[in-house]
Amino acid sequence: DQQVKQNSPSLSVQEGRISILNCDYTNSMFDYFLWYKKYPAEGPTFLISISSIKDKNEDGRFTVFLNKSAKHLSLHIVPSQPGDSAVYFCAASGYNAGNNRKLIWGLGTSLGVNP
Amino acid sequence: DAGVIQSPRHEVTEMGQEVTLRCKPISGHNSLFWYRQTMMRGLELLIYFNNNVPIDDSGMPEDRFSAKMPNASFSTLKIQPSEPRDSAVYFCASRPRDSSNQPQHFGDGTRLSIL
């Protein structure tokens, strides 16, 4: 049972346009969300995060939007660049029964930015 | 500043052999995570340590898997005996402290193939 879902396995956009990657979650106890980016043969690297007390967080070309009522978040990349081509993972966390945090991950969306 | 270091990068071995994966977390980080990535299930948390103590090993698939963290700068994940279905990429990650929203930092993974 996937608690964090990225329903689009892949996405292709033109350089300079906006990339929108989507993520849905089912557990209302999640209160912190992260996006990671992964290149082939490398580990995931942290990109941007958002707390549930906010609905938007921006860092340069990257913006994450959170809609708690819909249990949905999205990552916007504007403008998209060929170097953004990678797999993007959505992850969520909340305190579990042991008062510890662990991340629950989506399966990833492969983004291709065409020159 | 060195990141999370994993060894070996690639491992090919025959079914039934013992496999040991190694991880050196970032200095000063006191939470360490072992993940397994497969196409079908994505990134799955196997076990995580806080201050060298295993906190949650509910993701360890079966008794053939074991993990240790004898000190703050070293951890191992052992599979004995290995089976073809253990073939995957195994990632180690570390984080500055537990119960926090600090992002995890990943190594580049060990690609394991069991023949």
Beta-strand content estimate of chain A: over 45%
Shape of chain A: globular
Oligomerization state of this entry? Answer: heterodimer
Main structural class of chain B: mainly beta
Q: If you compute it from the alpha carbons, what radius of gyration of chain A comes out, rounded to the nearest whole angstrom?
A: 14 Å
Number of strands of chain B: 11
The global form of chain B is globular
Structural class given helices, strands, pairing of chain A? mainly beta
The total count of strands of chain A amounts to: 11
Spatial separation of the terminal alpha carbons of chain A = 37 Å
Largest sheet of chain B: 7 strands, mixed
* Helix fraction bin of chain B: under 10%
The termini of chain B sit apart by 37 Å
What do you see in this structure?
- The complex is a heterodimer of chains A (115) and B (115).
- Chain A is mainly beta and 115 residues long.
- Chain A has no helices and eleven strands.
- In chain A, the strands form two sheets. In chain A, strands 2, 4, 5, 9, 10 and 11 form a six-stranded mixed beta sheet that branches. Chain A has a five-stranded antiparallel beta sheet with strand order 1-3-8-7-6, with no helix packed on it.
- Chain A is globular.
- The model of chain A has no long low-confidence stretch (mean pLDDT 93).
- With 115 residues, chain B is an all-beta fold.
- Chain B is built from no helices and eleven strands.
- In chain B, the strands form two sheets. In chain B, strands 2, 4, 5, 6, 9, 10 and 11 form a seven-stranded mixed beta sheet that branches.
- In chain B, strand 5 (42-50) and strand 6 (53-56) form a beta hairpin.
- The N and C termini of chain B lie far apart (37 Å).
- The mean pLDDT of chain B is 93.
- The A-B interface holds A 32, 34, 36, 41-46, 49, 51, 89, 93, 95-96, 98-103, 105-108 and B 4, 33, 42-45, 48, 50, 55-56, 91, 93, 98-101, 103-109.
